[in-house]
Fold this protein.
Amino acid sequence: MLAKLDYILKRLVMSLFVLLGLSVITFTLARVVPANMAALYIGPRARAEQVEELTRKMGLDRPLYVQYFYYLRDALQGDLGNSIATKRPVVQEITTRLPASLELLAVGMSIAAVMGIILGVLSARLQNSPLDVLVRILSLVGVSLPAFWLALLLQIIFYRQLGWLPITGRIDTTLRFTAPIQHVTGIYLLDSLVTRNWVAFKDVVWHIILPAVTLAAYPTGLVARMTRATMLEVLSQDYIRTAHAYGVKDWFITGVYALKNALGPTLTVIGLSLAYALTGTFYVELIFNWPGLGIFTTHSLLKADYPAIMGVTLFAAVGYVLINLVVDLLQAWIDPRISLE
Amino acid sequence: MQTSDIVASKDRTTQAERLSTRRLRYTVRVILRDPLALFGVFVIVALIILALFGPSIAPYPEQGRGRTNVPDRFAPPSDQYWLGADQLGRDILSRIIIGTSIAVRVPAIVVSLAVLIGAPLGALAGYFGGWVDQLIMRVTDLFLAFPSLLLAVAIVAALGPGLANAMLAITISWWPWYTRLVRGVTISLRERYFVEAARSIGVPDGIVILRHILPNCVTPILVQATIDFGTVILAASSLAFIGLGTQPPDPDWGLMVSQGRSFILDQWWISTFPGMAIFVGVLAFNLLGDTLRDILDPRQYR
């Protein structure tokens, strides 16, 4: 137990340093690399004295370490500067768009986790069967598909050819008048569910299918591979053979005894594949016109809106580090062997 | 260690060499028997040929490089334009063929640079351990804490869009993977007799790393590089897609998909075929890399 506590503490301290380091990198990219930030803020017709004044006001004339100190202090207080394009605080821009992105991420990652685990388990149970080969191909296809291309293909197939699903957006705009969703969390699926707005709920589900599937393609492949590998390892162990000898049902051994021990590494992969999904949302949101963080970022990129870009980058990176920290801690909690490593 | 071991270690190197040719032959045999890996090799060879001789293979090399041909804009796939023509009337097949040289050159440069930066650092960290290891690995961890493509996007955004900056950005976010890989291999090699023997007879550290450590890291690096080749094609075309990579009128697959986006409902071929080129190219490297990893398994060092 003490060893475990020690591990958890070490992991926490390490994350703290990583977060500090992340802030140094985004600071460098946001403030040091771009030339003449003040002029960018004012716009193309800036007068020299205006630029000078703003340079002083933004503290851009001070030594870098002082600037970094202020940057860090502001970031810790939830101030990531103002967007050049909208002039509003970047944090505000992020928080208003976050629910849409979180909703997409959650649905996409859930699809990936469920599909990946099922495919991985089947693949391991039927090793070297045609199904196993098919899963291998599918997972390699999943990690090779450019998200932006898959998104366009799905639009062509399911909107243009079949007409089954809507092409873009989060919800049908007419619903804003006929069955408006009450704001509770900003996550439409939840909001329409708790307010029993079934018309809207169905429409939201319809809208989220294509973007979520696009987002899920890559992590599904990764999760399936990892689950297969660890399942094969676990299935070859003695306690599984013992269970067989005792006459425990086959599906019970695979689905409960073995899967329980194979889930650890799978959980890690799910955490790590968030790295992909986070950037994946940029593309998916752009193409499906999903009003989240990703579309905000891609638009900021085109306008060279540095505070917005670096704000989102820092925010996403911090989120990624924290999620992986939680995954590691969960693992340490579940698996008694981890602290001993 | 006994003297006989030291003597034997010299023997073992030649034995290892013999073993590696045997392993090479085994690798080739496995690939020949695995249709998926064979498909990968076939596509990769085709890509290299297209990259080298594209201008003489493409039906309309001028259009491939960007010359517009407005009268034929939006021409659907036909005998004249096998994959159709784009919004400026350029033959899409030619654009894809000419674009191969960018698609192949980018990962070649990025992966080489990432290996050149990452591998020596990893060898130093693993070989010396202690504070050197701490310093190098903490910096590495920091870069790995970012989702790679996100970091690349942020770097290009700061530097300004363009192919050169995109390659620089991808390299900066890619080298740490090689540092981590080589460090792991080095740590396991450091304990081996041939390294210990070399050190005990006073071979300088630098020479030990160059002659004994790094050559033995080649296999795992190759496996990782094969997979990364595909991943970098994907990353570079993703950057081009959002306008941060290759700039028009250069024929970049990602950029072509992006330009055709507004027309997908009526002129679906403009985006679909260049995207398929990306997909097949990336898949080929993943298929080959996957088979190589099964045979050579660099994970055993991690």
Summary: Chain B touches chain A at residues 36, 138, 141-142, 145-151, 153-155, 157-160, 230, 234, 237-238, 241-244, 254, 257-258, 261, 264-265, 268, 271-272, 275-276, 278-279, 282-283, 286-287, 290 (CB under 8 Å). The two ends of chain B are 26 Å apart (CA to CA). Confidence is low (pLDDT under 50) at residues 1-12, 298-302 of chain B. Chain B has twelve helices and no strands.
